Amino acid sequence: IIDISRIEKLYDLGKAVTVRALDGVDLKIYNNDYVAIMGPSGSGKSTLMNMLGCLDTPTFGQYFFEGEDVAEMDDNELAFIRNQKIGFVFQSFNLLARASTLRNVELPLVYAGIPKWERQEKAQVACEKVGLGDRISHKPNELSGGQRQRVAIARALVNEPSIILADEPTGNLDSKTGEEIMALFDELHSQGNTIILVTHEENIANHAHRFIRLMDGKIESDEVNPNR
Amino acid sequence: IIDISRIEKLYDLGKAVTVRALDGVDLKIYNNDYVAIMGPSGSGKSTLMNMLGCLDTPTFGQYFFEGEDVAEMDDNELAFIRNQKIGFVFQSFNLLARASTLRNVELPLVYAGIPKWERQEKAQVACEKVGLGDRISHKPNELSGGQRQRVAIARALVNEPSIILADEPTGNLDSKTGEEIMALFDELHSQGNTIILVTHEENIANHAHRFIRLMDGKIESDEVNPNR
Ligand SMILES: Nc1ncnc2c1ncn2[C@@H]1O[C@H](COP(=O)(O)OP(=O)(O)OP(=O)(O)O)[C@@H](O)[C@H]1O
Ligand SMILES: Nc1ncnc2c1ncn2[C@@H]1O[C@H](COP(=O)(O)OP(=O)(O)OP(=O)(O)O)[C@@H](O)[C@H]1O
Ligand SMILES: [Mg+2]
Ligand SMILES: [Mg+2]
Fold it and tell me: Does residue B12 register a pLDDT over 90?
């Protein structure tokens, strides 16, 4: 369902310095894949995730999403993909500072045109699934780091997307809460959805079926999870 | 050197709901301690760290820092503690968005009145120690999550404080980079400094000599690291 070839993302910093965040990436993701992307800090994982989520465009290379060239899509098609087909959990959460938890989680449903009573109900359910049922009126600065991370996760899942891209979803969570979130992802995977997560923790990665390792903007290895 | 007793931090959210972020904490930290604070998401770890770092005041209870009551200190004394005695690594980094890495790291030296050439040199050294020597002119949005985390770490260390408070310092780092940062903390500890870190990862916690576990705003256990 995702086919990217020869993807490069270059940042030109003047003075003849170019940062090669992605330096030639070929990757195919299939329906119902469960992928863990790993690699050193700065190796290009978030940049790759932003490409896959249609949130950023490559400097070179091609991206076919469900058989169609993303570079040829208009704004409406792209918005539909980002809002309804893909659920994205950002490494730095990207929550609205002045909105409550419930409002933050309900935002994708607003863009999807869901009526008010229905979206508040769906947002409430999503909050309960990540253990934040008693935090729905808190704003982000009234939440702990791990609670903010869970708001970002609930928001990504509320539109029931079939592809979930999660960038370090358990980075701020203790082991028990982290495993509760992973149980949620496992369940979504068993329902037929596609899960791609970036993580640096081996026991979190172990839930996935396929390991992709990045190094200096390139894919170093792409293999079946040896522990399954 | 740090003596807190019966510390409570309560948030009043109206409608007769009170969040008890810290619910009666007694704690003594000694010179050259190496402490790992652990506990579930939302259990009060960051709130406790903010108390210890004199960045927030308790609702009830007392805090003696090096024998003096923090509640009796004036703004100058508190500023001196926060800027020179304690180095604080925030869970959400708190970097200046419009400033470069070097400028962000050099900030505590500006407040300490260090002259320009000397602080740029010290900031450069601090950046190299966390592996960011080639990222000094990047702004935060031009850095990866783990790189931003390392800017926050370099900034906390640049004034050579004797007490380091680090809230999830390796949450966004792969294992290898995380161990490089822990080697840095181990070295600082061996030089006589006091290290207090919040972490949810067992192998990171294992560098510490003393484990404190929080649960629902209270200390559940406080023991020597059984693995040492
Ligand atoms: N300004 C606030 N108003 C209301 N509640 C708050 C506020 N700040 C924090 N809290 C609550 O206090 C509790 C403790 O928060 P804290 O940030 O200390 O947790 P933590 O242990 O650091 O969690 P994490 O591991 O997720 O970072 C949380 O349940 C949080 O919702
Ligand atoms: N706007 C930008 N300008 C210049 N360089 C950038 C920019 N954005 C990212 N980079 C660089 O691209 C590289 C890859 O960044 P990316 O965020 O993808 O890394 P990552 O693998 O997610 O790292 P981490 O594990 O630390 O989150 C980094 O070295 C970073 O400094
Ligand atoms: Mg990243
Ligand atoms: Mg915290």
Answer: no
Contacts of B166 in chain A (CB under 8 A): none
Q: Which two tokens stand for residue A98?
A: 């002045």
Q: Residue B83 is encoded by which pair of tokens?
A: 């800027």
Q: What is the mean pLDDT of each run of 10 residues along chain A (228 residues)?
A: 93 84 96 97 96 95 95 94 95 95 96 93 96 95 95 96 96 94 96 96 95 97 92
Which of B42, B147, B173 is facing A144, going by the closest CB pair? B42
Single out the residue of B57, B60, B52, B59 nearest to residue B27, CA to CA: B52
Q: Which residues of A are less than 8 Å from B148 in CB distance?
A: 92
- Which residues, 6+ apart, have CB-to-CB distance to B94 below 8 Å? B152
Specify whether the CB–CB gap between B34 and B208 falls below 8 A.
yes
Beta carbon of A146 within 6 Å of any ligand 1 atom: yes
Ordered alpha helix ranges (H), chain B: 45-52, 75-80, 101-111, 116-129, 145-157, 175-190, 202-205
- Whether A145 lines ligand 1, by a CB cut-off of 6 Å, is yes
Residue type, B179: E
Q: Ligand 2, residues A19, A20, A165, A198: which to mutate, most atoms within 8 A of Cβ?
A: A19
Residues A125, A31: Cα–Cα separation, whole Å: 26
Ligand having the closest approach to the CA of B144: 2
Angle of helix A116-129 versus helix A101-111 axis, rounded to 10: 130
Q: pLDDT per residue over A27-49, tens digit each? A: 999 999 999 999 999 999 999 99
Q: How far is the CA of A143 from the centre of ligand 1 (A)?
A: 5
Over residues B85-89, mean pLDDT: 96
Element (H, E) at B110: helix B101-111
Q: What does the CA dihedral A38, A40, A43, A49 come to, rounded to 10 degrees?
A: 30
Structure tokens at B73: 């200190």
- For B155-196, write each residue's pLDDT tens digit: 999 999 999 999 999 999 999 999 999 999 999 999 999 999
Residue B14 pLDDT more than 90? no
Element holding A64 (H helix, E strand): strand A60-65
In this structure, how many other beta carbons lie within 10 angstroms of the beta carbon of residue A224? 10
pLDDT for B13: 80
